[in-house]
Amino acid sequence: MRTGLARRVLAAGLVSLAAVAGCGVRPSDVIEAGDPPSGDVLPVTTITLYLVKNGRLSPVARPGPGGRPLFGADTLALLADGPTAREQAKGFTTDVPPQAAPFLVTAKPAGHLLVTPSAAAGELSTLAVQQIVCTAAAMTPDSPAQVTVVGTGEDVDLRSCPGRR
Questions:
Q1: Which one-letter DSSP state was computed for residue 44?
Q2: 15 has pLDDT over 70
Q3: Residues of 145-162 as b/e, b for ≥16 C-beta within 10 angstroms?
Q4: Can you give the pLDDT at residue 4?
Q5: Which strands, in side-by-side order, build the sheet including 112-116?
Q6: Can you tell me the distance from the alpha carbon of 14 to that of 140, in angstroms, rounded to the nearest whole number?
């Protein structure tokens, strides 16, 4: 029985040695790949949320998760998640209830966005609707979009969003 074990150990050792010796990797010279990348480093992508402080809307810039931008419904869901601990320490709150998420954002012609919350829009406070509208408008900074929160029957003048013209 000892002879069988010795043969198996020897065979395993030879197979391992053959695998390592015959892996096909051969030494080579240095391979030139050119200069390293250069140029400006892109800034971290930020998103603008409209949170509440002292009963009024205030724009708050946050870095996008992982330095990538968020779009539409994902950004609005952050309103329903509420302020971060750091934002809370600075006195920020949200009027957008957690049940308002997820949101459906539909782009219509001529820069019109329709935002449909999961909660009945009629149950949202005026301040919550303004948070949603201003945050949605901030997602289209190049051209001020017309934003409608479906079911609220309320219009918000986008010029009344702080930091917007």
A1: P
A2: no
A3: bebbbebbeeebebeebe
A4: 66
A5: 104-108, 112-116, 146-149
A6: 66
Residues 6+ apart with CB under 8 A from 55: 127
| 12 alpha-carbon distance from chain centroid | 51
Residue 65 near residue 81 (C-beta atoms within 8 A) = no
pTM above 0.90, yes or no: no
Residues in a beta bridge with 148 = 114
Average pLDDT of span 98-114: 84
Radius of gyration of the chain (CA): 29
* Residue spans of alpha helices (H) in 45-98: 73-81, 85-89
Phi, psi of 76 (to 5 degrees): -65, -30
Which pLDDT band, with edges at 50, 70 and 90, does 42 fall under?
Answer: very low
